[in-house]
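Module 6 notes. Inverse folding takes a fixed backbone as the condition and produces residue identities as the prediction. Think of it as a translation problem where the source language is geometry and the target language is the twenty amino acids. Below is one complete input and output pair. Work through it position by position during the lab.
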């Protein structure tokens, strides 16, 4: 059984910072890539940032220069440091990982989501 568990969401004022964490657990052989997505009601889930096992990264244009994705391969954990937050960053943030299990299966796994609200 593979699980992704997120933490670190909350309420922050515009211009503030938050750090999201997502830890994967279970019968995991490898995770590549890992990423963060976000969704607001009535809209499609969108990619925020993604990172490969070799630390190559890609960001949505809307967060470039403000958000930083990183990972700890030994802990199967991915982080999202969010700075200079704007009200339009308000969303539910989901962690994602393309996971190969020790049993040889491969598919995408998602976390349960964590709410980020940017408001004064």
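Target side of the pair, the amino acids:
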């Amino acid at each position: 059984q593979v699980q992704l568990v997120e933490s670190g969401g909350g309420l922050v004022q515009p211009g503030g910072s938050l750090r999201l964490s997502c830890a994967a657990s279970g019968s995991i052989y490898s995770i590549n890539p890992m990423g963060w997505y976000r969704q607001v009601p009535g809209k499609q889930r969108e990619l925020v940032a993604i990172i490969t096992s070799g630390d190559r990264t890609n960001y949505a244009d809307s967060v470039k220069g403000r958000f930083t994705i990183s990972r700890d391969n030994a802990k199967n954990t991915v982080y999202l440091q969010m700075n200079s937050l704007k009200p339009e960053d308000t969303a539910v943030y989901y962690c994602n990982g393309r996971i190969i299990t020790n049993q040889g299966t491969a598919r995408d796994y998602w976390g349960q989501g964590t709410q980020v609200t940017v408001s004064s």
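Reference fact for the lab report: The first strand starts at residue 3 and ends at 7.
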